[in-house]
Amino acid sequence: MMRRLTFPLGGIHPVERKGATRNSASANAIIPSRCIVPLQQHIGAPAESLVGKGDEIGEGMLIGQAKGFVSANIHAPVPGTVKEIKSIYLPNGVRTDAVVIELEGEFERLGKEESRRDWSGMDGPEILDIIRENGIVGMGGATFPTHVKFSLPKGRRCEYLILNGTECEPYLSADHRLMVERPAQLLEGLRIVEHLLQPDHVLIGIETNKPDAIAALQNAVNEAGVNYRVVPLKIKYPQGDEKQLIKAINGREVPSGGLPLEIGCVVSNAGTVHAIYEAVVLGRPLIDRLVTVSGGAIAKPANLKVRIGTPIGELINECGGFSRTPAKIITGGPMMGQTIYDLDIPVTKGTSGILALTEREVNAAPRTACIQCGRCVDACPIGIEPTKLFKLIDHFEYEDAVAHGLMDCRECGSCGYICPARIPLVQGMRIGKLMARKKKVPV
Amino acid sequence: MNEQVQITSSPQYHDRLSTAGIMWTVSACLVPATAWGVYVFGLRALWVVIASIAAAVASEYLAGLVLKRFTLADGSAVLTGLLIGMNMPPAVPFYIPVIASVFAILVVKWTFGGLGSNWMNPALAGRVFVFFSWTGPMTTWTMPRTLPVVDGFTSATYLGVVKTGATESAGATGGPLALLERVGFPRSNLDTVVTDWLNSALLEPLGIELPFGYVDPFIGNIPGSIGEISALLLLLGAVYLFARRIITWEISATYFLSFGLLTWIFGGLIHGGGAFTGDVLFHALSGGLMLAIFFMATDMATSPMTRKGLLIYGAGAGFLTFLIRTYGSFPEGASLAIILMNVFVPLINRATQPSRFGVQKVEEAES
């Protein structure tokens, strides 16, 4: 057997617990009677609201206009009436306006057959336009506007297009189900991106804990008769980070502070590529996504196709509510996700999972002094020494911290997961980065 | 709204291991070897261990009172006390382990800031401190009750006998086991029986013959410190720690390799043999080597941070242990060797910083 590829430096094997949902086929979530659609669901400038209180809107209608290049359009996930536009907090602490829609009227798309568009005659700018208009952002969690990522600057060429099917976050299996259930659509999405970026190679990276997804995509590749390579990767967190994925799959290393495009690579998440398929082929804006609802406190874990703006509490209810007392409610995965306390917070384009973890699963322990065990150094995939940086930041030595690689930190959480002293290392890195930027420490 | 849930920065869940978990598990893994010591040396040994632990815990509590930081629950003080107790001769006067523990916790550990901030292994420093202060009682040994009584034989450790023997004869001694034989060191019946059985059942077909005298130190039928004598039980504890990934293989492996290799090559010379005649098995099983390799050198606070650093650290400790044991004036070398290597840890850390992702290549391209 071939030696499985993975990235060489650091990485950990967090407890996976994907079993609760990996074999449960995705189902459509109940359409909520009230959607809360934030105007900021992406990295960049918030969209500008195009609607006001009392407006009647249709399914998929543009309700938020991207402001500037690095921004993304927002569409109405359901038909209905705008009840109000209110200011809400997102899980990451960002305050944004949100359009509250009360469900009413008829769905234009739901349950109806959609006509296919032929994209083979389209040129690059045309496809890019469709991606931009339909508000597509990176759905792995970073939510960077996809049209910006795919706009190659002059003099840059995409040599490798890499589909990110690693889904290395524990508990989550939404991408996994997507790959198993819709391989043909995913592949067509990938062909559209290939048509747009004209790469030399197209690679599909999937971790070996998803053998059915590997088989499904290999099968789709064979059927389509394209020259794409499905690459099974050894399980290791954070392989889904694009820098680690590139290193694992073709050995190239994104320079510190640089972007994948500098070494000729573009990585796109499976969910994003599927959204591109829907936008280009079906003319469908990004108004829903697959979400894994799981964790030890959830009665019936499931993968649900959810309309953007659905309050998280409704999804939890749909999954049977809490079977045990949750210690933490998380949007995203347990490694990089955010805790919430307000169940009215809506699902956004970047919400890959809703988790409710019990006290036992969290494995909290009293914080102690650093015992110099070196586990964080061993775990760090970018080769910085988290405990040393934490101490520097703790002593306000931001310049020293930056010199030791602080700004390279991906906040993947490997160090914080493994730390027996439960030192909030990642939080420390975030504070350090914030302060270094505030104080304009040269990188 | 749910007022019960925790709001925290990511990562949202953690590995099972915690500081307290590590300390208590290591302590638990030392219990069998300590219990064996109590069994062969009598209940007094238990009181020595209890006195060490009690003094360590009391010192930790005192430091906590002064600094308003109560850290007894993390288990590190109990572990230090236990290690000190294990490193005491069974008949030692009680004030010695007490002083060793107080010195370890108050001077070595807390003057530098407590858990994780000490740069020297507290248990070893405590032991070495009392060893040099009260050399007499610290080198007075008791025969285990499982060995036959030989009239006129004063108790000494294996390594003590070998050291004196090699120094006095300054010539061909035929190796450490022959030396022991010559001074009439008692051997248990069990050793004879087990060695016979091993030879006839397992080793004969392979063409190897195991000499008598290795089974006693393997099981722990030898004089020595309370917790260091049973190589078998210490190994079992270590295997569990490896399985739980509480200790990693690097230090133990390079420690043993460098010590074993040097002993094999040069260890025979002081016995009048040629190069490559050293008795590695004898040295591995006697003295405090097992305890040192798996439980002392692997102390996290006083060993390097990186894997590469751990390899260097282990190799250095092995080298120094060999030097002291073979050429130094003490029969035992592990404690001193590890303490000396503790001093080099900051240097090793500096020299073995991990290579940063995406950085090396940029520099190469620029130069």
How would you describe this protein?
The complex is a heterodimer of chains A (443) and B (367). In chain A, the strands form 4 sheets. Chain A has a 6-stranded mixed beta sheet with strand order 1-14-13-17-15-16, with helices on both faces. Chain A is of the alpha/beta class and 443 residues long. Chain A has 3 domains: 155 residues, Ubiquitin-like (UB roll) (Roll); 159 residues, NADH-ubiquinone oxidoreductase 51kDa subunit (Rossmann fold, 3-Layer(aba) Sandwich), CATH 3.40.50.11540; 64 residues, no CATH class. In chain A, helix 4 crosses helix 5. Chain A starts with 26 loop residues before the first strand and ends in a 5-residue tail after the last helix. Chain A is 28% helix and 19% strand. The longest helix of chain A is centred in the middle third of the chain and has 15 residues. Chain A is built from 14 helices and 17 strands. The model of chain A has no long low-confidence stretch (mean pLDDT 95). With 367 residues, chain B is an all-alpha fold. Chain B has 2 domains: 120 residues, no CATH class; 190 residues, no CATH class. Chain B is built from 17 helices and no strands. The interface between A and B is large, with 69 and 50 residues.
Mean pLDDT of chain B: 91
Could you give the distance between the termini of chain A?
A: 44 Å
CATH architecture of the largest domain in chain A: 3-Layer(aba) Sandwich
Number of E-state strands of chain B: 0
Record keyword descriptors for this entry.
heterodimer; A: 443 residues; alpha/beta; Ubiquitin-like (UB roll); Rossmann fold; 3 domains; 6-stranded mixed β-sheet; 4-stranded antiparallel β-sheet; 14 helices; B: 367 residues; mainly alpha; 2 domains; 17 helices; 60% helix; globular
